[in-house]
Write a structure and sequence with these properties.
mainly alpha, Arc Repressor Mutant, subunit A, two-stranded antiparallel ribbon, two-stranded antiparallel sheet
């Protein structure tokens, strides 16, 4: 399972699957079932439903109910960035969290905790800056450039 129940965050592999799922959805205007998406990703259907559910709550994916229901992009692939996915899945910097956690039982931990948090915040800002440069459309174009 890729979900981290401790902090309700998603692991990097689930983050990658979410991005790939969005790329798959961008290939068609048709509704896709969670089973189709999971099969494309070689992942479990229930797990993909959970990941996609977070994307639905963030208004990146639209859910259609009913027998012929499923999922489709809620907006153009050109307007969905990797940063949007990162934030939708509540990804967090594990390095920064680990650094801060390491100060809890240390005699001088409190004196470096603030610095660790500052560094972590800067890493998070840099990560988001880079992720904002990549859209689902751009990734899909790269994936399918040799298939035309």
């Amino acid at each position: 399972m890729h979900l981290n129940k401790k902090k309700n965050t998603v692991t990097p592999s689930a983050f990658g699957l979410a991005i790939q799922g969005l790329v798959f959805l961008s290939m068609s205007d048709n509704v896709r079932s969670s089973k189709e998406i999971a099969n494309m990703m070689n992942s479990g259907t229930t797990f993909m439903r959970r990941v996609i559910g977070q994307l639905v709550r963030a208004n990146l994916v639209e859910a259609r109910e009913g027998r012929d229901g499923g999922y489709l992009l809620a907006k153009p692939a050109s307007s969905i960035t990797v940063a949007d996915v990162y934030q939708a899945l509540q990804m967090h910097n594990p390095l920064g969290t680990g650094m801060a956690d390491s100060t809890l039982d240390c005699e001088r931990g409190a004196s470096v905790r603030g610095l660790f948090q500052e560094m972590s915040s800067q890493v998070e800002e840099s990560t988001l800056h880079i992720f904002k440069q990549y859209t689902i459309k751009r990734i899909a174009a790269e994936v399918f450039k040799n298939e035309e």
